[in-house]
Amino acid sequence: MNYELFQLINNLAGTYTWLDISMILTVKYLAGCFAALLLLLLGLGIYYKDKTLLKTSIHTIVFLGIILITHSIIGFIIQEPRPFVTHTVHLLIPHAADSSFPSTHAMAMTAIALPIFATYKRLGTILLTGTIVTGCAKVFVGHHYPLDIIMGILITYLLFKVSQNYISSIIDKLLHHPKYNIFRVLANIKQCVRLIKKSQAPLRDQFNIKG
What we know:
Elements: H1 2-10, H2 17-47, H3 51-77, H4 83-86, H5 104-119, H6 121-140, H7 146-176, H8 182-206
Helix pairs in contact: 2-3, 2-5, 2-6, 3-5, 3-7, 5-6, 5-7
């Protein structure tokens, strides 16, 4: 059933040029857009001192790290050949012949989408939709079986439900800690930079250095 469903999707490759290009672009760039968005949210949270946005961003980064480690462990234990290794497929993008199960894209993108969805439903829905589209695209270009995508999303979802409250409570404590509060840390860094600039001012004046 897994291979039959793979054939059903992968055999569409080469039918329409616009579809091939769309799937290739999705596979190549959408995951990167997810990562860029995550960094943007983190930056906005810090800049505007928005604790909700900052908490969501940090939670997402921590959970993404957990998922990538989990993926590496599963991939090491379960050595599932990719479709193009054992079958004749429409391979639109060259790929290393490493383990196919579970999909890195599916797990990583779901790991970014779920914590954001938990707080920002509209944005999270868009990200989850993008995750599913990318999963289909990975099958379309010949990189994964459908089960690689489905299980990648399912494993990530289960781990999120198990770890959500635990990670959230730790981040809450850090954000409200009087000593390790990230805003206090950033303020201290700015103060250090100012002191360094002040200490360098006499030297610049003495040696007539423009800074």
